[in-house]
Amino acid sequence: MLEILAYAIGVMYTPGPVNLFALNSGLNGRFASSLGFFAGVGTAMLLLLLLFGWVGARWVRGDALLVISALGCLYIAYLALKVMRAEVSIDGTTQGTRLRFRDGLAMQLMNPKGLVATLPIATLQFPHAGIEGPGLLLASLGLAVLASGAPGSYALAGFLAGRRLGNPRVFKTLNLVMAVLLIGVAGSIGYEHVYLPLQV
Question: What are the TM regions of this chain, as residue ranges (predicted)?
Answer without folding.
Answer: 31-52, 64-81, 136-161, 173-191
